[in-house]
Amino acid sequence: MEKVKDTISVTVLVADNSVPATHVDYQPQYFTLRILPTNDNKGYFGAIGFLMKEFDPQEYYYSIISNVDVLLTDNFFLKLSNFKCDTAVGWVAPSIYSERHQFDWNPQAMQRYSLRKLKILRFLFKHPQLLQLKKKIFHEFKDIKKHSSGDIYAGHGSFIILPKVYFIKCGIINYPVFLFEEEIYLAEECRKHGLKVVYYPQLKVLDIGGVSTGKIPSLQYCSHYIEALNYIISHYY
Prior knowledge:
With about 240 residues, the chain is α/β, with parallel strands linked by helices. The protein has one domain. It contains seven helices and nine strands. The strands form three sheets. Strands 4, 5, 6, 7 and 9 form a five-stranded mixed β-sheet that branches. A hairpin with a 4-residue loop joins strand 5 and strand 6.
């Protein structure tokens, strides 16, 4: 932040989902920090929607949505400030390198998911004993080849960069699901409003993984996923 403190302005907005709200005594030197208690746990995008009702994202050139599982590289904001974003791009997906799994989470998906695949996924979450097989297959056969910059269907949801044009075209985040499949929601909103999603690996963040979702009990985890898939299927397919 010190490298760009005289050229860009950064405001960090934190939605505090903890009950009771957590008191934070911290005064940053190089950016503005605002912490807003939600007074209940609104989930991931529920908290984001709460913030966007208080702070208009169209006042910012970029809005970054992030969970607590990531670290920024030292030159991240410098590279972002130098990035020439096409006016038709609604979502920029950076490299999100997982130290635990040793691969980049992005691109999350190159092509749109079929309805059949989403229904199969929903079936697996309704039968947790089969879900373990899905997890094993995913980690064993995850495509770890490097991708170059370009158009994709969806980025990973742990760190999302939305240019101002996203909010001009799509409005503020309005995803009434507690957790999961935020990537499909954003991808479908971009698709619906004629915006592109691009992978730009020159922007890098580090994923330290499992800090938030890793603490959710398994049955509750599955329940949230089923709710998310039901919403996605009913609204976009």
